Amino acid sequence: MAARVMKRRDWLRWTSASALLTSAPHRAWAQAGPRLISLGGGMTEVIYRLGAERWLVATDTTSVFPDAALRTPKVGYMRALSAEGVLSLKPTAVLGTHEVGPPAVLDQLRDAGVALQLVRADHSFDELVAKVNAAAQASQQVEKGQALVAELTRQWRAVQQQVQASRPAQSPPRVMFVMAHSGKAQVAGQATAAHAMLGFAGARNPLGESSGYKSLTPEAAATAQPDVILTTADSIQASGGTDRFWEHPGLAFTPAGRAKRLVVMDTQFLLGFGPRLPAAVQALARQLGTVTA
Q: Average model confidence (pLDDT) for the chain?
């Protein structure tokens, strides 16, 4: 009889402990490790490369690679966050770039005690290194982060040498980047990821004297006179196919349009500034060399 009573007491202790654990899962998470929210596809790719995805509790809608990132809970677009949505996930840190927002939401997160680790998005290799360092620190993977930085640095130097060696004797090709994800086309000036990628790949942006994104007009296309158009697969799809893409204002009457010189790349691969950056520069340089040969 005493044995049976003891077993019942043990059972009661066990169920009480279980109830406490299930009623406070966030405390168990805090003991087990960090809870990270990643904002921006490039940052999310870094987290996966570090093998730290087990600490991810959510990502934003630009986090589409690798495929596993598509299955993570989403907190919306990185520039249009909701404080309530983020705080409901009880993150220990939010990772991203200074492009995330809006500012009022970031202030709310700081006031709530959430650590914001935001890297400056200056579209450089240093930006990628800063992303790796931030993600490695937040996920407690410092040694892996150092190893990844060393690997990426080797890749980056090799790609720079390849691009330099393959530069044409004549002036570099004039390449205009056109984005039409919403159906309405825009072109990229300086201070954009697209402008930086063109420079890394040895091309010249004919709209480099302007800043940011501007609407594509026949006048802008005529002034730019691009030899090649660079765009994204999402832009081609949103435009209704390649033939329809050339119907955007003025494109058909440019040197690129008349010769149908078009380079199409995956959006995140081209513009994400994640750990695939060296490979993206290499791929862009190769495709530009092919269409201008």
A: 90
Rounded to the nearest 10 degrees, how much is the dihedral formed by the CA atoms of 126, 128, 130, 136? -150
Question: Given strand 115-119, what is the order of strands in its sheet?
Answer: 56-59, 36-38, 93-97, 115-119
CATH class entry, domain 28-160: alpha beta
Q: Does domain 170-292 have CATH number 3.40.50.1980?
A: yes
- What is the residue whose two structure tokens read 């150092």? 146
The H-assigned helical ranges of the chain are 2-23, 25-32, 41-49, 67-70, 83-87, 103-111, 125-138, 142-165, 193-200, 218-224, 233-239, 242-245, 255-259, 267-271, 277-292
Return contacts of 239-245, CB within 8 angstroms, 24+ apart.
239/180, 239/183, 239/185, 245/180
Amino acid at 139: S
> Over the stretch 92-115, which tens digit does the pLDDT of each residue have?
999 999 999 999 999 999 999 999
Encoded tokens for 157 = 């130097």
Query: Do the two domains 28-160 and 170-292 of this chain adopt the same fold?
Result: yes
pLDDT, tens digit, for every residue of 15-28?
Answer: 334 333 333 444 44
Q: pLDDT tens for residues 179-237?
A: 999 878 999 999 999 999 999 999 999 999 999 999 999 999 999 999 999 999 999 99
Q: How far is CA 206 from the centre of its chain?
A: 25
Query: Which residue is listed with tokens 């980047």?
Result: 177
Instruction: Read off the pTM.
Output: 0.87
